[in-house]
Design a protein that fits this description.
The chain has 663 residues and is of the alpha/beta class. The protein folds into 4 domains: 3-143, no CATH class; 203-394, no CATH class; 422-565, no CATH class; 571-660, no CATH class. The strands form 7 sheets. Strands 1-7-6-5-4 form a 5-stranded mixed sheet.
Length: 663
């Protein structure tokens, strides 16, 4: 139940206090009764220093009812009940709560608007909440207070989650100990559980995608022309007559058979050999001679060795299946060759592991262990799904990889996708750099001679993005704690562009500083291996304490790429509910609110210097001793805040008095 609805005070109460009005198909029960409530003045989902109201037992025109309605203010909380029981005299107990809202506009004393919050798990019973004849103030009721606190806290978090979803990047700022990191982790847990594919069958996800598919005709034509170029240069009948230079990779020539199969035709189905040895014969730059492997390694004559390889490739193409060649060539090379020469028969997936994942994902039937037979099963599946649609095999392959984790295999339960996103956490510091975050050269020892060399390695963020790209159905959240403690421009480098929410995905791809050194382990994109981008399903949360004098100001170019949300001390006060053992949580909250109210009054400090709940969590280390918390944690921090200010000692005493005041 969400959205603004009007409340008309004189319309709501009958003799039983249960008059319902139907607005927008939802029956709502209107209310009033006030109680003090702690928090901030913000009405956008924060906690507030306002009142809680619920509907009472009242008569139309009652002057006391008018007086209480007149006391309602913008930002007050409203609790809607769905049933009431009349007790002795005029006392009434309501047992079910149906909704919670915030007053967003007061038109006059009896008419105002309510924004109903989305409350999914309301408690079923609240006992012993009574009032007489007309509206009466709610007395102490910890259960109600805690419930409203939890609902408002969840609503506050939902608002922040909406900010993150809309902007992809979020920074939580606030005073020390306000629970920014705690909240960041809670938000991340919520985001990774909201994956869109969770609980859906793979075939339903696929059908929805292909029904809404719009082809890129220009890209399609480029692929078709690419295949024509290859087949014109390497027709089936010419294969056996290729020279060493026309077949072999290694000399840097980009116009030989092996280069085309591995790189030139990559957009028609990626083939990653892992090593030039897969081609059985290639030019070794290190040895400056042809290197032979596999079943031709003992053949002394290079030309004779090539003739054997080409004869078998010609035979493979002629047979149109892998049956007699799986012990001679790797499965990936076999499938790439067959798909290239028979694009109508074989599907452009050249990895046995990937094919097995597709077969398992869609429960395709095959009894054969032959890689070519498995590939044909997938090709037949493509034809069955797209028989009446204008989608090429290459486009269908791209759809599969964009929708599912074909590389690692989706997690299924009862034929439905199980969403299993991930959260990563890093804390920035002055020594953190691009090498740690994106990629860089790392020292490695040669096991043969113990010499130290350098290899390109992915940093934590690039590796995280690579995982997210391979799992498009799942959400990934990257938390950067103390984000302003690192030198932002040095850490992010060219990623300033690609993390922008408007340039997520391939449209925001960039060449990284080491793009010309990518290896099979470090490359990011299946199509353009020297490019990197931040996937759409990656969310970034940063936390920072912007009053810390020891850090530089946040880079303005990066600042505009994030949405900013200040976390105040009250916003995460519910953290204290986790330490009930031997701790007076109610007393902790009262002292915290009293101390922060005094801090906020001081012009030299203000709300940015308030003390967060994380400090009061330390009470569990001292068996709830508030004096030790003050002496060991709060006093030293506040003394540092006040250091150098005129009258700092008297100000500290005022703060201590507020902390020790019996509330």
């Amino acid at each position: 139940m969400t959205g603004n609805r009007e409340f008309i005070g004189t319309d709501v109460f009958d003799d039983c206090g249960n008059n319902y009005k139907q607005r927008g198909g939802i029956f709502v029960n209107y209310w009033a009764v006030g109680a003090s409530w702690g928090g901030t003045e913000d009405v956008s989902g924060e906690f507030f220093k306002k009142k809680i109201w619920y509907d009472g037992y009242a008569h139309h025109g009652d002057e006391q009812n008018k007086s209480m309605l007149d006391a309602v203010s913008v930002g007050d909380v409203l609790i809607m009940k769905s049933s009431a029981t009349k007790g002795k005299g005029h006392s009434v107990t309501f047992t079910k709560v149906k909704g919670i809202g915030i007053i967003t506009d007061k038109i006059n004393w009896y008419r105002f608007k309510v924004n109903w919050l989305d409350v999914k798990n309301l408690p079923k019973d609240f006992d012993n909440i009574s009032y007489r004849k007309t509206i009466e103030q709610l007395r102490e009721n910890d259960e109600i207070y805690k419930f409203v606190n939890d609902v408002m806290g969840q609503n506050n978090m939902n608002i922040i989650i909406d900010y993150l979803k809309a902007n992809k990047n979020l920074i939580l700022t606030g005073a020390p100990g306000t629970g920014k990191t705690y909240l960041a982790k809670e938000i991340a847990e919520s985001i990774v559980k909201e994956n869109s594919a969770s609980g859906q069958t793979p075939i339903k996800i696929l059908k929805n995608a292909i029904d809404n598919f719009k082809p890129d005709l220009e890209a399609r034509e480029e692929k078709e022309n690419l295949l024509k170029m290859f087949l014109k240069q390497f027709p089936k009948e010419k294969i056996q007559s290729l020279t060493l230079d026309e077949y072999c990779a290694g000399k840097g020539d980009r116009n030989n058979f092996c280069w085309w199969i591995e790189t030139g035709l990559k957009t028609l189905g990626k083939y990653a050999p892992g090593s030039a040895r897969s081609y059985l014969i290639y030019w070794s730059k290190k040895k400056e001679e042809y290197s032979k492997h596999g079943y031709i390694k003992d053949e002394a004559d290079n030309r004779k060795a090539l003739e054997i390889v080409l004869s078998d490739i010609h035979g493979l193409i002629g047979a149109g299946n892998s049956k007699d060649y799986e012990d001679k060539f790797g499965n990936g090379l076999i499938l790439k060759i067959l798909n290239t020469y028979y694009p109508e028969v074989f599907f452009p997936i050249n990895s046995t592991k990937h094919m097995d994942n597709v077969i398992r994902l869609f429960n395709l039937k095959t009894d054969s262990t032959s890689v070519s037979d498995k590939n044909k099963v997938i090709n037949n599946f493509y034809k069955a799904q797209c028989k009446s649609l204008d989608i090429t095999p290459f486009e269908f392959q791209r759809i599969l990889y964009d929708l599912f984790n074909i590389a690692e295999g989706e997690i299924l339960y009862e034929d439905k996708i199980v969403s299993d996103g991930d959260i990563s956490f890093v804390q920035f510091h002055p020594s953190y750099d691009y090498t740690d975050f994106v990629e860089g050269l790392r020292p490695v020892k040669n096991e043969d001679n113990n010499d130290i060399g350098f290899e390109l390695k992915n940093g934590i963020f690039k590796q995280f993005c690579k995982k997210a790209k391979n799992n498009p159905n799942k959400n990934y959240v990257f938390i950067i704690d103390e984000i302003n403690r690192g030198e932002i421009s040095k850490i992010f480098g060219e990623l300033f562009f690609s993390i922008d929410p408007g340039y997520r995905g391939e449209k925001g791809k960039v060449k990284t500083q080491y793009s010309n050194m990518q290896t099979e382990d470090t490359l990011f994109s299946d199509i353009d291996e020297d490019y990197f981008y931040v996937p759409e399903n990656v969310y970034i949360i940063g936390t920072m304490n912007d009053i810390d004098r020891s850090v530089e100001s946040f880079d303005f170019a990066m600042r505009r790429r994030f949405v900013w949300k200040e976390i105040k001390a009250e916003d995460t006060q519910n953290m204290l509910d986790s330490i009930t053992d031997k701790i007076d949580v109610s007393e902790a909250k009262k002292r915290m609110n009293s101390l922060n109210a005094e801090i906020e009054k001081m012009p030299e400090l203000g709300s940015h210097y308030q003390i967060g709940a994380a400090y009061f969590l330390k009470l569990k280390n001292y068996n709830g001793d508030f004096n030790r918390l003050w002496d060991l944690h709060l006093k030293p921090l506040l003394s540092e805040y006040l250091r150098g200010l005129q009258g700092s000692e008297s100000k500290l005493k005022e703060l201590q008095k507020a902390y020790e005041t019996d509330n």
